[in-house]
Amino acid sequence: MKMLDTTLIGVRWTLYDLVDRLYGTRINATLNELQIKGCMDFLDEGQSVWRMPGRRQGMFRAWSHIAKRNRRLRLHGLDVGEILTRTEQPEAAIDLVMNRLQIPETLWMDYFALELAKLHGWAGFVRWRSQAKGYYWQERNPADLVDFIAIRLVLSLPLIEEAGKEHRRDFRYPAWVRYLEAHPHEALLRHELHSGAILPDYAHRVEVVLDGADAAQIKTLCSEYEREKTAREAAMRALRLQELCERAGIPRAELAGKRSGTLRRMIEAVYSFRAHEGFVWTQALERTYIRDLLAKLAAHRTRTADAVRRPDEPHVNGGDIQALFCIDVRSERLRRQLEQLGHYETFGVAGFFGVPVNFIEFGKGHEAALCPAIVTPSNVALEMPHSHPSGGHGHEGHALFQLATEVVHDLKSTVLAPYITVEAVGLLFGFDMVGKTLAPAAYTRWRKTLDNGRQPTRLMIDKISKDDALDLIATLQDEMVVRAIDRHFGVKREAITTGMIRELREIALGHATRPSGFAQRFDLDTAAETLFLTSLRLEYGLNPDQARIQLEHLARIGFRIERQALLVDNLLKTIGLVDDFAKIVLVVGHGSSSQNNPYESALDCGACGGDRGLVNARIFAAMANRREVRDRLAERGIRIPDDTCFIPALHDTTTDETTLYDIEQLPPGRLTQVSRIQEDLAAAGRLCAQERCIELGETGVPSPESAAGRVKRHAMDWTQVRPEWGLSKNASFIIGSRSLTRALDLEGRAFLHSYDHRQDPSGELLVGILSGPLIVAQWINLEYYFSAVDNEVFGSGSKIYHNVVGRFGVMTGNVGDLRTGLPAQAVAKGDRPYHQPMRLITLIEAPLSCIQEALDKVFKVRELVKNGWVRLLVLDPETERVSLFEHGLWTAQPWPAGTDRSARVARPLGAKPARQHRKRAATLEESP
Fold first, then answer.
1. To pair with 621 at 20 to 30 A between CA atoms, which of 159, 520, 771, 820?
2. Comparing C-alpha atoms, which of 279, 297, 281, 288 is closest to residue 843?
């Protein structure tokens, strides 16, 4: 036992930490609760019906205006009004509190770090918001860590001062230093008593002696307590050491021998192992996985070599249809099953398909970035309806149900919900709940009969000309004028002419002068017309500055043809698909579907920013199908046949169903082939479902059909805490040709990215894979790693106790820190771990020298490899050697015993066995 060290004040303990530890108060808990409620009020993104006023002024100012009048704070004995009336600046408030507590300025940064760590989830979210460019809620209601710390310090000051009055102590920094130096024994006993670490049979004696405040008795009891606790801890450790030695086969006599030195060596071994215990198990898992992976690759190489040595066997064309899949580990199963069913050649690529874009969904007004977090999109794509909705029969049921659902949601959000929800929509809400609970599959089918399907849409991916952009802005401005006239004067559209509307618009923009024809027609005086024009400029945005901003926004919409060709060219060259195209090329994005699941986006595509990959697939397919794009690709050496069609698709990873999109744009002659593809995708999905049911622990699924029904029910059941395993058990990232792993069962644990080093003489394509997809995969790997290692600290605990907060996060219970990481249900099966925490094992099929050159160009990945966060394996197809980067060196890895080393045949390991040899892609300099 050690006395409390004064140097740890402000570094490890805040002032109120010491008050709690030595006097049994709950300042930290009270402070957390008050700050969490303030954060919930300010950071809310539409969940609460009653909004916090004044949020546009910033987090600290909005909170302080309410805190001055907050009765809840006064009930806690917190009158913060005296502090807040002295300043409205968060920096000044921080300075005031720190000086009032007399904390040395040299400790301020350490003290701030302690305060942020108290609620690291909330602090992390505020920090993210403050650095997220273009984030709507941050621009509307700004907040940063200075605000966060200021609020916490302002709340902590009266709590500390109130505790000082109650215990008749000075709890400022200098007083704490003096107290710990002058009364070390009393401080130690108080810490043991109130921290819960005290020996049970000493608790009463310690409490009595502390109440007596006799320094001599306190010192005597403290010395006795230290001896007793040390003796008990020593006895417990000796017993454990003895049990360990017995299991290790070391006799007790040898252990007790003074000359043998066995006891000292065992103690040193225990402490040495303890320092690296977790890492030892991690390394063992990694080595086992690497050994098994190499064994699979070696066995596959031998089988492939045997097939080549027997040319009399019938050749099966494996690529009548090509499919581009996301590198996601869940795509590995579908690719494997699809290839085994028929003549398919599959490729792996990051699921945004090389198209970073901000997307505006039809019916929504905000942009969603569909790309990895490390990429900032510069283009915007819009979703537009093929035709305007009509009020014909068939939409009435859908509209009615939609309206009723919105009413239910609004009522559930209001404080009056307990009184009126059941009476107002009880029948509808109750039926919805019963249906989702007792018969989710049948109920979902019934609800679909009320909805004739989502309105067909098309994507706007081409640039808008300047003239069209100006026309769009003018049309928008005219609409604003019409609405303003209706609102201000009650005049409807039929009473005004187009000339009046345009004249008012031109006057508001400064292109014309008053009086207007509208004012003359409706007898408006000069003051009324001026007020109306001012409203148009300020409230409705009819001014030159706003028009210029709108023009800049419209300029971001779509991609120029040259840009489209470049994006398609980069992706096709990266995966090695530069010639020998099939007549149909599927572009398969993926997403997940589940009910009542705040973590649904964690099951979607990480390469699409946690969204579905369908939009990116549709955009890429549309670009690749364009005649103008193909003409420019031909100039770059990639000639796509006229009869090749790219078809976007979406793989639902929960149900393993794959749906084709935009097939109405295909030539009629392809529909028969499309029907066969749909049947194959359905069959492959059922086989995947059967695999996944086994891992989910499902019973009573003897056939793929029954398994498919089971996983569909999981997607519809709102009581299901684990609709799918997601990316749990992810372990490796394999960069190479499909022939390297084709037909291998990688158990849905490998990210698969297609790459052919022969088509990348400069190494730039490999650099792109390392700097993008590999980093995203490593992020995902570490997210699962830390969530599995300590789910309560780095994960988010059980989903059962979660509550959604402000539509941006979850917390456990009604008041708590924002939870980070993944829930326990994503990494554990019951009380046993499911995900195996390993660092990402990356295998690259390319010459070692090429990989070393690529690493030199990518600093971030080079550091990840050197610091051990990525275990890098290189399979050199020229030498057939496997090298592992470890401890700063490249070491050769032996192929598993029993591998046929004579399997070195004419075709290198990375060659494509099912299709004819592809030509090397022409570089820009070689293009005609």
1. 771
2. 297
